[in-house]
Amino acid sequence: MNDTIHIAQPVSHEVLWDKFRAGDKEAFGQIALHYYQLLYNYGLNLNNDEDFVSDCIQELFLELWERRAFLSKTDFVKTYLLRALRNKIFKESIRLRRFKQPQDVQFVAGADISIESQIVLNEEETAQIRQLSAVLETLTTRQQEIVYLRFYQGLEFDEISGIMGLTRQSVANLLHRTLKKLKESWTIAFLISFIFLFSPQ
Where in the numbering of this chain does the RNA polymerase sigma-70 region domain appear (predicted)? Predict the structure, then answer.
């Protein structure tokens, strides 16, 4: 008698993407459930109208399902969805004349930190988050976006390039200028704290 217990291995998002393209509704649901909050947080950094961002995400997933047979294979599902939402929000903003101006950006520091992490933040860390929010507000729209993608989402230059529609060198230059500006306001200790608090675990 074989008593070996077989533990199901988690399915990669790339495999789920292929199943979704083949018409698997459960795989599509898992993708939507996993990435919805990430897309929502990112969308709010492009347009601070919560209902508008939610509508764009819903329309995006509806369009993906309708066009599933024509979608290409990808090894970077998160990058694909972020880029698709970015394009969707910009197109809809222009169509509805609701394009977000740089001065309207309200980047929320710590938006992607789990509730559990927020509970254990001490007073010093809370003060650092407030300071970080104030510093980020001095950045341009694209500078805030590259900080979000690089440090909050941990994306590589090539992935950021695809999302923002920039060359890899332009991404590197933009990040360099952004970090240079941030360092003007931060101490080295605070910069380390930022990376520790907000980099993906």
Answer: 34-91
Q: Are residues 121 and 179 in the same domain?
A: yes
Q: Which two tokens stand for residue 160?
A: 């950021």
Q: Compute, in degrees rounded to 10, the torsion defined by CA atoms 65, 66, 70, 76.
A: -20
pLDDT tens digits, the chain, 201 residues: what are they?
455 444 444 668 899 999 999 999 999 999 999 999 999 999 988 888 899 999 999 999 999 999 999 988 888 899 999 999 998 988 887 777 654 443 343 444 444 444 334 334 455 555 655 666 677 777 888 888 888 888 778 888 998 998 988 899 999 999 888 888 877 766 544 554 555 545 544
- Say how far apart CA 48 and CA 133 lie, in whole Å: 16
DSSP 158-187: HHHHHHHT--HHHHHHHHHHHHHHHHTT--
7 within a domain of the structure (yes/no): no
Q: Which residues contact 188 (CB under 8 A, 6 or more apart)?
A: none
Is residue 44 within 8 Å of 89, Cβ to Cβ?
Answer: no
Residue 64 lies in a domain: yes
Task: Determine contact, residues 71/21, Cβ cutoff 8 Å.
Answer: yes
Q: Do 59 and 135 share a domain, yes or no?
A: no
The domain that contains 154 carries what CATH number?
Answer: 1.10.10.10
Report in angstroms the alpha-carbon separations of 153 from 33, 45, 46, 48, 51: 17, 13, 15, 19, 23
Q: Do 135 and 87 lie in a common domain?
A: no
